[in-house]
Amino acid sequence: MSRQTQRKDTHQVNGDIRKLVEISRSVGSDDRLVQAGGGNTSVKSADGTRMHIKASGTGLRDMSPDRGYVTMTLPPLMELLHDEKPRQMSDDEREPYVLRTMYHAVVSGPDLSARPSCEATLHAMLRRYVVHIHPVAVNGVLCSAESNELCQELARRGKFTMVCIPYTNPGHPLAVSCLKAVEAHQAAHGQSPEVLFLVNHGLFVTSDSAERAVSLTKAIVDDCEKLYQSRKTKAAATTGDGVAEEQLTDVTVELRRALVESGSPSRLIEFVADETARRLLARKDAASLLSLNSTPDAIVYCLAHPLILSARPLGKIAPAVKKYIAAYGEAPRTVLVPGQGFLVVGDSMKALKTTTVVYQAELGTKERTTAFGGPRRLTRGNVDYINGWEVEHYRRELARAEAGAGGPLTGKVALVTGAGSGLGRGIAMGLAAAGAHVVLADIDLPAAEETAELIRKACGTPRAAAVRTDVTDERSMAEAFGCAATTFGGVDVAVAAAGIAPAFPIQDFPVDAFRKTLEINLTGYFLAAREAARWMIRQGTGGSLIFISSKSGLGASRNNAAYNVTKAGELHLMRGLALELGRHGIRSNAICPGNVFEGSKIWNPEYIRQAAKKRGLKPEQVIPYYISLTAMNQEIKQQDIANAAVFLASDQARVVSGQSLVVDAGQEFVR
After folding, report:
1. Which of 351, 361, 502, 632 lies in the 20 to 30 Å Cα band around 267?
2. Which residue from 351, 359, 297, 317 is spatially nearest to 334, judged by alpha carbons?
3. Which fold has domain 3-231?
């Protein structure tokens, strides 16, 4: 091959990839078309030998020339489509066989280990440019009793060729079913169809023009919406009954307790005030309408069935969860609350967000089917196939990895005061790394948000919510714990770490500075503990209180009257709470760090100058001097304190309460 030919081929491949990225972003950035980044796209080379296709695990809007796709050679995919062997296999035999063939067909891409779309073989049989999505407007038609007739009407309106595929199990069975329909259309009309309507699934649009593929996709979505608006009827008969807004917190608390008691690994809960859910739940036929989800996507991300609460659910949620788990083998991911909306259950922030978006699409689909003869229900066999589908297990493994599965704090929610800097930041990051989701409470909101971003980068996924909190203000502290409840469903661990340390000789100590230290270091810890105790007792699932005291709480230091007394006071407050709260399963402990210089606001240049003056040292000698006071002659790092907090927060410390864990490299000793 000449160098000129090589350059031409490389340029063509790059041009195809640019088209793939352009199509993907155009479709993926339109919320009418895509939910939670779902769907896929592909572009074939001009000679028809290769196909660039979106890889699993990447949202359409997130694709770039160096991310989110693989390049596959087409002949093995077409051979697989026509191969009789996988058609004779059982589901358990076929899925690995198909997956191996698809992986072997991958020839290049930014990440050769990336998994091709499960619908790669379906893309392979179609024209050069392909868009596959599951928009609400279209699925309202495709999940309805009148789907066949409506697809014919849409084709007449839009003047495009199409086939309507009856519901078929996803993956290879669906691809084979589509192949037969496409070949029949080709034989009858001399060309392949531009559109594939997949009943109870979604839309495929294919063209030899990228612009036509995108414009036709959007036109079909628009026509489906117009069709719904023209057929939409007046509101159905309603019950007018629902859960009172002031009971929502009680519902969330009761649900979380039921999940914990059931042993469910999914314990994060978020409430979604959804108007579509409210309308559908108010219908007299709500139970039958909403009892079974409509599409593979909804079943994969939200499970097949929501848990539908009664209008008077308090006291009945635990039995309902137990009954649900007995019937379906796992806890619900969506819980419908009449009069209010729905709760989503998951094990990570990303899972909560994805479930929310997909379930809102499911509700929108359900509402639209009421204008088209009602929903077309999947069979039990259809549902069982999806639940056992290899792709479903793959997605669950991805979700577990993102949730930090395996960490000692997986499934737990922690609130950390003073999380914007210093020890509070280090502890929050350590708890998140151990699997917890964390509420970052700090008077400096931008600093707390910076911690949240550091956690996102370190963990690879969002795991924290920042909230501005004045630890000396009762209402502000209550709002911080309220944030834990509304964002994650509750709180299991509360760490009081916000503090100050003004240094003055006693004769020069300003009373205002003394009082401020008492307010932040003592009143702040009291308010954090009181609010945590209220929530934890209400939840009925135990919990862990952790006070960040100091070695100065054990042995006083000079010129630190306010700091000494508050740190000692924190320890005695902790001990009293251990006695008081133990019967509720709530443990209370303290960490007494030595001098932690890393990232500390306390050890600022002015404080170091004062310490140097007090000790007769130069400023640059201060830190080495304090390190030399330890038996181990080692500097204490933020991670050392974070490790101690993770231990006290975890089940490894399940019978440890009323204790002070000294982390100071051997400077103070508890006797």
Report:
1. 361
2. 359
3. L-fuculose-1-phosphate Aldolase (3.40.225)
